[in-house]
Design brief:
The chain is α+β, with helices and mostly antiparallel strands. It has a domain at 52-216: Immunoglobulin-like (Sandwich), CATH 2.60.40.200. It is built from five helices and nine strands, in the order ααββββαββαβββα. Strands 1, 2, 3, 4, 5, 6, 7, 8 and 9 form a nine-stranded antiparallel beta sheet that branches. The protein binds copper (II) ion (CU). The site of copper (II) ion (CU) has 7 residues, from strand 4 and strand 7. Residues 255-269 have a biased composition (Basic and acidic residues).
């Protein structure tokens, strides 16, 4: 009652409301519930906010017809509610290879394309120089490795093989759990003449047929996607929410927990 009336009374009223302490027990419960969820949301945002990278591949002296581009983009992998990880999608588009052939495909240590044979790029990239060579894991194994939090035994730059189609072109896309964008920028993509068979020390992939330095790429202005609407069945940008009783507000919040899923699996080439 003392708060009614003129402007001074109104200010006093607002002060009263601000000072009221939150119930301690309720705050503790809220923190326990929202802590892990908030951490996961921040991790996802940090992952998807990483700057994407790209490399332009140029044929080496013996394979001048080879040309290509490779894009490396962050991807949030959340196959289920118990595990999630920031991985990298590597997508390559290459032309000028012999039809139907497989080629070792790696990240090499140095972003140096000054020699025509590709050798100035050095060896396979890994933060641990004593790491042995290997081929990427199959999808299920890669997910299990991420879930278990252990690092598979292979170079971080060991990306396996790409295969040229009948026209000599490669259209390739795959997720890699060991490729970390911040670690590979400024290094090189190398395409080899022969397939990588996983043997030591570097997979017996032979000469280098194309090389390209990995750098930051120009990113077009972000398109802000509308929040997912679980009940919307994909139709009507505006109208969907008006339908069905009760679910309208809750649906986007529920969807938030699932939208990070990047298909779940590590796709094979
Ligand atoms: Cu290599």
């Amino acid at each position: 009652m003392g708060c009614r009336g003129g402007g001074g009374g109104g200010r006093r009223h607002r002060r009263h409301r601000r000072r009221r302490p939150p119930p301690a027990a309720a705050a503790a419960v809220q923190t326990a519930e929202w802590g892990p969820r908030l951490a996961a949301t921040l991790d996802r945002a940090r992952c998807l906010g990483l700057p994407p990278l790209a490399a332009t591949l140029v044929g080496t002296a013996t394979h001048e017809a080879v040309r290509g581009t490779v894009h490396l983009t962050p991807s949030w992998m959340a196959p289920d509610d118990t595990v999630a990880a920031c991985v990298t999608r590597v997508a390559a588009n290459v032309t000028g290879l012999p039809p139907g052939t497989a080629h070792g495909f790696h990240i090499h240590t140095y972003g140096d394309a000054t020699t025509r044979d590709g050798k100035s790029a050095g060896g396979h990239y890994d933060r641990d120089p004593s790491m042995t060579h290997g081929l990427p894991l199959a999808a299920a194994e890669a997910v299990a490795a991420v879930a278990a939090g252990h690092k598979p035994v292979r170079h971080e730059g060991d990306m396996g093989n790409v295969r040229a189609a009948a026209d000599g072109g490669v259209f390739f896309s795959r997720l890699y759990e060991l490729v970390v964008l911040e670690h590979v920028v400024g290094r090189s993509i190398i395409l080899h003449q022969a397939p990588d068979d996983g043997g030591q020390p570097t997979g017996n992939a032979g000469a280098r047929v194309a090389q390209g330095v990995i750098g930051y790429k120009l990113v077009p202005k972000a398109k802000v996607a509308p929040p997912p609407t679980a009940g919307g069945a994909g139709e009507g940008a505006k109208g969907g929410a008006a339908g069905g009783g009760g679910g309208g507000r809750g649906a986007p919040l529920k969807g938030e927990g699932h939208s990070p899923t990047e298909g779940g699996a590590m796709h094979e080439a």
